[in-house]
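Session log. Operator J.P. requested a structure for one protein chain; no other inputs attached. Running the standard single-chain path with token output.
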Amino acid sequence: MGHRQSTIELKNYCSDYKLINPSCYTYSGSCSTPFPAEIGPFDSGIAVFEKTAGTSCGSVGVVTYDLLNKSTQENPGKLAIMFSNPFDFNHDSNLFAVGVFDMSTKCDYGLYNKMYYEAQGGYVRGAARDGGLTYTSERVTITATMTDTYEPDLRVQVHQN
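Structure written below.
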């Protein structure tokens, strides 16, 4: 039960939007394999987050990407992915959330705390054991699934509306 790692695969199925300026905040653990600086249309990226060795904490945090319209160069929002792979499944379970926020939103403890604890608004949250999530904003729809294992795979797809 000591090793914990979360793999996040992000696929961009938007023809008009690139995902740029990735940022991550880890509440516990660290990012061992970061996302690429840009995920273009019909491209994908993978990141790996691991628990800190010798601790009784899992791999928990939030990742953001700016949405960039290729033709207008406008940023209509910030894509956010929250993940929680706890150390002890007796007390917690794998949780995840996806959404789109205002461009002024920072990728920090505040965003993590909001997506983990607060009432949903601008995002959807669920437990891995309960199935997939879908969040629809004005410009994109995000779908996500997370395996309910000690080393979960979180798969996120972004589709243009």
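Operator note: Residues 5-160 form a domain with the Mutm (Fpg) Protein; Chain: A, domain 2 fold (CATH 2.60.270.20).
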